[in-house]
Write a structure and sequence with these properties.
Shape: globular
CATH superfamily: YVTN repeat-like/Quinoprotein amine dehydrogenase
Number of helices: 1
Radius of gyration: 22 Å
Strand order of the largest sheet: 1-32-31-30
CATH architecture: 7 Propeller
Strand content: 35-45%
Number of strands: 32
Largest sheet: 4 strands, antiparallel
């Protein structure tokens, strides 16, 4: 009996050790590992095509924040009957080469040019595609040693400014490229300026404003402004933990909103001087959702049980209007439409979050829905085009009185194995969905 009990005990211990090992591996893979590149993966085309002319569109999407720094596309006339789906125009699958090269950056579009970052085993890559056909026009690259937590590829979305495009790699490489031919014009490294990389890599998309390009770098270079033409440092501001959200423009007073790892602040765009600041402390210092504003009211949200807050700015003095747990946006940006906030709440790795509508002035909750999972969205033509982390697409009508799901397409981004975290983009009548090595382009016109 003793031998039998010992044998059973050893089996139980072995099972427990196996469970601990599996849990430890899953935890390591989630925090430090790279999502594996699975499914179809093409080789990068050997020969690029040329365009006879370059143009601008009527509703270009040239940065993470969009043309008006509010996450709203200017396109009018989206297709609202999804019963027969959307017409797929093209797709490519060569953005990430090798198995451990996960890259999350969203594309940006100006006319017939689309810019999107990628990655191979040793290099950050930047692709310029024909936005109408997906054909490769040029490819840029630079050697970049990176960590592997959630992949070595870029998280930040580029910024197109006229004939230049700015990219920001996950290890702090800020690069200016010639938009038309991919020639590298200048290259700066955060580490050379005293920057300290946040735990999950540099993710703060660059902001181009007037003659400057502004990024978060952390450490002794919490925010840095460069001359957009030469790369010369014009100012450095603050010291501390860098956030993951992009610097953005507060249009009410033309200040720069900086959502760092520990605070929300307003900066003077000419000097970098801190005009005001409010602490906003979150577990792991993950402030990743872009602040959005309407008039002199600013809305911020973070995950990890932190919640959200509305601030009113008068004469460079912030007043907290309200705080709430109603929206806990981990890294999905909200949008404000006619005095109401729409945003995802919940963990980005689980498809059981909620889409929530709040009144901006007082935080009153108008509605919440679990019908569109957890994900990201694009705004256009009084609708949200929501992509959940499983690759399903939903059309939600903007209405503060009730949730209205107007359309649904299952597996619009097929073969999704890991969470599909990249936000959809709408530009010039087309919808662009990116998942790791893939981009799919759909017609979104009615």
């Amino acid at each position: 009996m003793k031998k039998k009990a010992l044998k059973i005990g050893l089996i139980v211990v072995a099972i427990l050790l196996l469970i601990v090992a599996i849990f430890g591996y899953l935890l390591w893979n989630f925090t430090q590992g790279s999502e594996s590149i699975s499914g179809k993966r093409q080789a990068i085309p050997q020969r690029a095509v040329s365009l006879d002319s370059y143009n601008q569109g009527t509703s270009d999407w040239t940065s993470w924040q969009g043309p008006n720094f509010d996450k709203k596309s200017a396109f009018i006339g989206i297709k609202k009957d999804w019963t027969k789906g959307l017409d797929k125009l093209w797709e490519v699958s060569f953005l990430c080469q090798d198995d451990q090269t996960a890259t999350w950056s969203a594309p940006v579009v100006q006319g017939n040019l689309l810019i999107v970052p990628g990655r191979d085993e040793k290099n950050d890559l930047v692709f310029c595609l024909n936005s109408g056909t997906g054909e490769l026009i040029w490819k840029g690259s630079y050697l970049a040693e990176t960590n592997t937590n959630h992949g070595p590829g870029s998280r930040a979305t580029p910024f197109i400014d006229n004939d230049r495009v700015y990219t920001y790699g996950r290890s702090g490489d800020l690069v200016c490229w010639n938009l038309k031919d991919g020639n590298m014009l200048w290259h700066k490294k955060a580490a050379d300026l005293g920057g300290i990389e946040p735990d999950w890599g540099y993710s703060s998309s660059p902001l181009v404003y007037k003659n400057k390009v502004i990024v978060q770098m952390g450490g002794a270079a919490l925010a840095v402004a460069f001359d957009k033409l030469t790369g010369e440092v014009l100012w450095k501001s603050g010291n501390g933990f860098g956030g993951y959200a992009p610097a953005t423009l507060h249009k009410a007073d033309s200040s720069i909103l900086l959502f760092s790892g520990e605070a929300i602040s307003g900066l003077n765009p000419e000097t970098g001087a801190i005009l005001w600041s409010l602490p906003w402390l979150v577990d792991y210092k993950v402030n990743a959702s872009m602040p959005v504003s309407e008039g002199n009211i600013i809305f911020v949200t973070s995950g990890y049980r932190k919640g959200c807050m509305a601030i009113k700015i008068e004469n460079n003095k912030p007043t907290v209007l309200w705080e709430s747990k109603a929206i806990e946006g981990q890294h999905s940006d909200p949008v404000i439409v006619d005095g109401y906030v729409y945003g995802y709440s919940g963990e980005s790795s689980r498809n059981n979050g909620q889409l929530v509508c709040l009144r901006l002035s007082d935080g009153n909750e108008m509605w919440r829905s679990t019908e569109v999972g957890t994900g990201t969205f694009a705004y256009a033509d009084n609708h949200l085009i929501c992509l959940d982390i499983k690759g399903n697409l939903f059309l939600v009508e903007i209405n503060p009185d009730k949730f209205i799901k107007a359309g649904e397409i299952k597996s619009a981004m097929p073969l999704v194995k890991n969470p599909a975290w990249t936000a959809p983009v709408i530009a010039n009548g087309k919808l662009y969905l990116r998942y790791l090595q893939h981009i799919i382009c759909y017609s979104i016109t009615g």
